[in-house]
């Protein structure tokens, strides 16, 4: 599925829709350049899970955990991962089966570790269509 958004709020609503349809153990992989809206999508997912905390990208901590009403959110940022083995060291495999939702920014950096049934979301800018325009491709 391909969606086009023209504002941060519209991009966040895509995440909200994904969050409302999420199931335990879903893995949502976000791919796109810096500043393209990966964390905005994650904020929308968190909103759907009724998480009231401020959602920030865990660039230096690798993972942030948020408690939702029905499902927890495990938010990863793998931008700084240079060796996939680092993910095992932080207990990545355990997060995959904690009955929550894993959202992974920069998931393409650890693609060999991603379960086969994951949702992949590719986010792209096109400045010719506006500063906040995003093309969002969702693949199951």
Explained architecture:
With 140 residues, the protein is of the alpha/beta class. It has a single domain, classed as 3-Layer(aba) Sandwich (Rossmann fold). Helices cover 24% and strands 26% of the residues. It has four helices and seven strands. It has helices spanning 8-20, 38-48, 85-89, 92-96, and strands at residues 2-5, 27-31, 63-66, 73-77, 101-105, 119-125, 134-139. It has a seven-stranded mixed sheet with strand order 1-7-6-2-5-4-3. Helix 1 crosses helix 2 (38-48). The termini are close together. The relative contact order is 0.25. The mean pLDDT is 94.
Keywords, please?
140 residues; alpha/beta; Rossmann fold; seven-stranded mixed sheet
- Beta-strand percent range: 25-35%
Helical content stands at 10-25%
**Order of strands, widest sheet:** 1-7-6-2-5-4-3
Q: What is the domain tally? A: 1
Report how far the terminal alpha carbons are from each other: 9 Å
What's the overall average pLDDT, rounded? 94
Mind telling me the CATH superfamily name? P-loop containing nucleotide triphosphate hydrolases
Specify the CATH architecture: 3-Layer(aba) Sandwich
Name of the level-1 CATH class: Alpha Beta
Low-confidence stretches: none
How many distinct helices?
A: 4
Order of helices and strands: EHEHEEHHEEE
Number of strands: 7
> Rg, please?
14 Å
CATH fold assignment: Rossmann fold
Taking the sheet with the most strands, its summary is: 7 strands, mixed
């Amino acid at each position: 599925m391909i969606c086009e958004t023209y504002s941060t709020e519209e991009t966040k609503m895509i995440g909200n829709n994904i969050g409302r349809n999420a199931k335990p153990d879903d893995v949502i992989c976000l791919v796109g350049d810096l500043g393209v809206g990966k964390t905005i999508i994650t904020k929308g997912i968190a909103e759907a899970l009724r998480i009231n905390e401020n959602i920030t990208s865990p660039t230096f901590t690798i993972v942030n955990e948020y408690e939702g009403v029905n499902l927890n959110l495990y938010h990863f940022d793998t931008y700084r991962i240079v060796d996939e083995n680092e993910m095992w060291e932080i207990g990545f495999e355990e997060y995959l089966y904690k009955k929550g939702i894993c959202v992974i920014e920069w998931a393409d950096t650890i693609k060999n570790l991603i379960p086969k049934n994951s949702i992949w979301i590719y986010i792209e800018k096109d400045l010719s269509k506006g500063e906040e325009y995003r093309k969002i491709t969702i693949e199951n």
